[in-house]
Amino acid sequence: MLAERLLTRAVELAQGAYFAQQPTPVPSLPKPRPGLTYLLYAHVPFCERLCPYCSFNRFPFEEERARRYFRNLRDEMRMVADLGYDFPALYVGGGTPTILIDELSQTIDLARELFSIREVSTETNPNHLVPEKLEPLRERVQRFSVGVQSFDDGLLKQMDRYDKYGSGEEILKRLQSIEGYFHSLNVDMIFNFPSQTEAHLLRDVEMLKQSGCNQTTFYPLMASRSVEAALRRTVGMVDYSREARYYALLSDALSDSFEHATAWTFSRTGGGMIDEYIVDYEDYVGIGSGAFSYLDGRIYVNTFSLRVYDEAISAGHQAVSLGCRRATLKDRMRYRFLMDLFGLFLDKRAFERDFGVSVERGLPLEVAFFRLAGGFDRDDEEAITLTAKGRYLTVAMMRTMFANLNSLRDRARASLAPNERQLLFGDGTPACGAEAEDSTLGTPAP
């Protein structure tokens, strides 16, 4: 689709300078601004199996190392509380947050003690849908998100998930067994795998409908440079030329049971909680190794090194870097434009109130492009909503934004010590005799 290619390139250029800055260590996160509402994100980077398409900070699970990490995570949470932050919601991502359920439960409990937490979201994998993992979370978690990616056995084998998590039919049965267990059960899926046919995708949708989930998120396959080689070896090269067709196909196939909650999240008709914290919270604090924070137009990055993270927290301070320069007014308007469109509703009056200019005057090229491409459905003095084409264009914009964020992650990982890089990109074991020293990024600021 020509419009998608033009838009993708425009987003790459517009965000390029913002994400190009080399992260610079800082003493800590800034204090909160009065009157702003923040979300707390906690990152748990351990997995039993590293997926080839994942560019988040993640390491092979080892129990002693993970337990120490959880203790550090709770200590960092206390540091954030000491800065004066409060949060109505906690999102725990990974990695696999449920890797040690007792540690996760303690972490959630502490968050509720320190902050005004009303909603907790956490992610998991299909093999953790068992009573001993779920029962401790039943009263602690409102939004539960399961990373399924596909029910197709061939794709699961390509992703190295079949042996660990079971067949598509086995995963489906596990999901059905927890229907109604949580207020929101979200199933994460991926579309546009190179070997995925239209028949595969439609079968994924039909099995999803049988799963009992009340929400699903269909992400387009996104490749970052750090995982490009692994992707090529396992699932093949990504073909973006068919992405729009596959998105339209799955949207239509879901329409009899689900409705759009965001551009790529679908909720059961009649309600459901949106499992996308970036829609509800513009500013958020990230804790844990590899976590991002977005505060007052700036991105902060926690060290990707488990060793440096451990040393910093043990010494009583954060290991955080300023990841990007402060966003300009234009940058912030573009971010709001994208997030509001991704959430399917742009309030023009709120936009003008917050930025002192109408969206048409502030972002004339962006608005003109969407109008010309037929992306707007409602477009009056009060609001903008999207057509089906507009929703896909927003998906393409989000995919490009995440690719830019992945480039920032790649720069953060570039200074990892050889033994930690081996854990991430090798066979899951430390490199023999590798140095234990990191370079500049992630070294705690004085």
Entry keywords:
globular; 43% helix; disordered C terminus; 446 residues; 18 helices; nine-stranded mixed β-sheet; four-stranded antiparallel β-sheet; alpha/beta; 18 strands
Number of strands: 18
Number of helices: 18
SSE-based structural type: alpha/beta
Widest β-sheet, arrangement of strands: 10-11-9-8-7-6-5-2-12
Tell me the span between the first and last alpha carbons: 50 Å
Instruction: Determine Rg (CA atoms, Å).
Output: 21 Å
Overall average pLDDT: 86
Residue stretches low in confidence (pLDDT < 50, at least 5 long) are 426-446
Give the biggest sheet. Answer: 9 strands, mixed
Strand content: 15-25%
Gross geometry:
globular
**Helical percent range?**
40-55%
Strands, helices and their partners?
Blueprint lengths: L1 H18 L4 E3 L11 E7 L1 E2 L11 E2 L2 H20 L6 E6 L6 H14 L4 E6 L6 H4 L8 E7 L3 H6 L3 H4 L2 H10 L6 E8 L6 H12 L5 E6 L4 H10 L8 H12 L3 E3 L4 E4 L8 H4 L2 E5 L4 E4 L2 E5 L3 H9 L5 E3 L6 H14 L3 E2 H8 L3 H4 L1 H10 L2 E4 L3 E4 L1 H26 L4 H8 L21
Helix pairs in contact: 1-17, 2-3, 2-12, 8-10
Describe this structure in words.
With 446 residues, this protein is α/β, with parallel strands linked by helices. Helix 3 (101-114) links the parallel strand 5 (89-94) and strand 6. The chain contains 18 helices and 18 strands. It has a 9-stranded mixed β-sheet. The chain has a 4-stranded antiparallel β-sheet with strand order 1-15-14-13, with no helix packed on it. A 3-stranded antiparallel β-sheet has the order 16-18-17. It is globular, with a radius of gyration of 21 Å. The protein has helices at residues 2-19, 63-82, 101-114, 131-134, 153-158, 162-165, 168-177, 198-209, 225-234, 243-254, 277-280, 306-314, 329-342, 348-355, 359-362, 364-373, 388-413, 418-425, and strands spanning 24-26, 38-44, 46-47, 59-60, 89-94, 119-124, 143-149, 184-191, 215-220, 258-260, 265-268, 283-287, 292-295, 298-302, 320-322, 346-347, 376-379, 383-386. The longest helix has 26 residues, at 388-413.
